[in-house]
Amino acid sequence: MPHLIELLVIGLVAGTAGGMFGIGGGLIMVPAMMLLPGMGLTRAIGTSLGAQILPIGLLGAGVYHRSGQLVIRYAVLLAIGLLLGNLLGAVLANQVDQALLKRFYGIFLLGVGLRYVLQRKAAGAPAEPAAPPDAHPVKLLGIGLMAGVAGGMFGIGGGLIMVPALVAWCALDLKTAVGTSLGAQIAPIGLLGAGVYWQEGNLDPAYAGILAVALLVGNLFGALFAKRVNKDLMQKLYGGFLLLVSVRYLFFS
Questions:
Q1: What gap in Å lies between CA 75 and CA 182, rounded to an integer?
Q2: What is the pLDDT of residues 41-94, one digit of tens each?
Q3: How far apart, in whole angstroms, are the C-alpha atoms of residue 203 and residue 94?
Q4: Nearest Cα to 190, choosing from 82, 92, 88?
């Protein structure tokens, strides 16, 4: 199959980032796939969502669960919101002009990249709560819904929205938020959105299958090494990558 090695590398890198930061990997997969011949933005987004039909967060979530850093009830409610929001985002994306969608995507990447680059390391290490507070189900469904809409439009798993929202609005510590985000991604969150892209001819199932396998393995690596890597430096580098990609979409697409 053409591009097999490239797809495996893309999936492994995206999966490793997902295991470390609780994201689905689409922010890496989508721009990386656009470097492949003939792969436009909408098809890359659809293929990214297709890869997320499989339980890509399974192995990584297992690592966090064994450490007591995954709230299963939260993950289930988030997954429901993700699934529904994903469908809405996919419908919107397939109705938007390609050039305009690229501008939206560039703005989205710019905001996310700035958040990573400007994020400061907290002074000291705050004590982690013995048990997470009981967040209202509507709040969790809302977080999942917002993340799902962004996922359907841009091919991401939603962790870039869920993780900070769980920390800010549900008082989870960062590691538990990452683990819970990965837990939500065990469900086939890309199913409804991917179906929309498939009907429009904007999903490559063979590519999606290869990416999904690599994502699953990379996700485990990322979760295992999350505590051993300098995450502050990693976040700065990742943010810089997103800023460069956003400039490309905003000014050179």
A1: 8
A2: 899 999 999 998 988 889 999 999 998 989 999 999 999 999 999 999 999 888
A3: 12
A4: 82
- Helices 174-184 and 72-93 meet at what angle, rounded to 10? 60
Give me the residue label for tokens 């997902």: 18
| Separation CA 31–CA 132 (nearest Å) | 36
CA-wise closest residue to 202 among 84, 90, 87, 54: 90
Residue in this structure with the two tokens 């400007």, named with its chain if needed: 118
How far apart are the C-alpha atoms of 181 and 175, rounded to whole Å?
Answer: 10
The vertex-211 CA angle with 238 and 231, nearest 5°, equals 25
| Terminal-residue alpha carbon distance, the chain | 28
Given a contact cutoff of 8 angstroms between Cβ atoms, the answer to whether 161 and 143 are in contact is yes
The torsion defined by the Cα of 226, 65, 139 and 192, in degrees rounded to 10, comes to 90
User: pLDDT tens digit string along 88-140?
Assistant: 999 988 887 877 877 887 888 788 788 778 876 544 444 444 455 678 999 99
Provide Rg for the chain, Cα atoms. Answer: 17
Per the CB < 8 A criterion, the answer to whether 78 and 144 are in contact is: yes
Look at residue 181 and give its three-state secondary structure: helix
What amino acid occupies position 142?
G
Could you tell me the two tokens for 42?
């909408």
